[in-house]
Amino acid sequence: MIESRLRSEIGELADLGLTRRRRVLASPCGRMATVDGRELLNFASNDYLGLAGNSAIAQAMADGALRWGAGSGASHLVSGHLAPHEQIEQEIATFLGFPRALTFSTGYLANLATVPTLAGRGAAVFADKLNHASLIDAVQLAKAQGAESHRYAHNDVTALERLLTASSASTKVIVTDAVFSMDGDLAPLPLILELAERHDAWLVIDDAHGFGVLGAHGKGSLAHFNLPASPRILLMGTLGKAAGVGGAFVAGSEIAIEYLLQRARSYIFTTAAPPAIACALSASLNIIRQGDALRTHLMARIGQLRQGLQGLPWTLLASPTAIQPLIVGQNEAALALSKALWERGLWTPAIRPPTVPKDTARLRISLSAAHTAADIEQLINALKELA
Fold this sequence. Notes:
Layout: H1 4-15, E1 32-35, E2 38-42, H2 55-68, H3 76-80, H4 83-96, E3 100-104, H5 107-118, E4 123-128, H6 133-144, E5 148-152, H7 157-166, E6 171-177, H8 189-198, E7 202-206, H9 221-224, E8 233-238, E9 248-252, H10 254-263, H11 265-268, H12 275-289, H13 292-308, E10 315-316, E11 323-329, H14 331-343, E12 346-347, E13 350-351, E14 361-366, H15 373-386
Parallel strand pairs: 2-12, 4-5, 4-6, 6-7, 7-8
Antiparallel strand pairs: 1-2, 3-9, 8-9, 10-11, 11-14, 13-14
Helix pairs in contact: 2-12, 4-12, 5-6, 13-15
């Protein structure tokens, strides 16, 4: 039968403990989640500042829909670039200190636009081995059009330097996450930018998990390291995590952004996001800009969790961010621990290969400014009991 191979492969996933299922929430994204008729304390979302359910942002979206309609009607370059799209791009660029920004419907589309557009035939791409799947796929697209692909060990600047020195490519593109989504650690961006300057390379940075959280006023990982908005940097940030809404942006120099606008296929051939989303993002950006208290509270909860989980039999990775990975090891053990927490009213998802390397299945504990000290204490106590 035509479906037999599919059934066989799904069966293999089940045997390895790698099947996934969707949970249907009956509540907005927030500190608490209603799932399968249960109220759960939510440590599963990327809503780092607790803005996904913010009433002012929701009202801005509702007002935007009434003013601008439900959809954009076309791609940006045909007739779908409405005034709210233009406004949010200017606001993001100004906020980050870049000359210009371009918005996308998702971060995946943004990464698929940036890397293959910069790295054509004769180019070489240098990518961290733990980059997000969207960057991995972006590099594959670049390879398909004739670019060389080189991967360096996670955060190994010495290895990256050797690869750059050995390359004779006409165009070099370094690609890295800023905050790695499954480990929560940061790329050594000052050292990588120094290499980019020395080897005349582009530096593509995915700041999906840093934007809104790190740096002065939540400007992200570049601000965290006090790095300038260099013309050789293209900075991608998603707007459905700390910003609490949806979409993504790429910020860069005037000429780099114009080049993407003219050449990036996943920008040119995609219908623009609904303008109401841009209206909501404008409201969100105002909160992020003034959100130092939210970030201070979040950092306090991170410190509380890390202190409380010391001495447990599992390995808590050295993450200074809202992503706190607890390495369990085997798939079944991670699933069992996640299930035990679920039964105690705590939603802490198990992450398994291929998202993470084999034998490093983990709980990915995501913290939010919406969490209270009591919430963190509840999770700590539950893990201590289960240990």
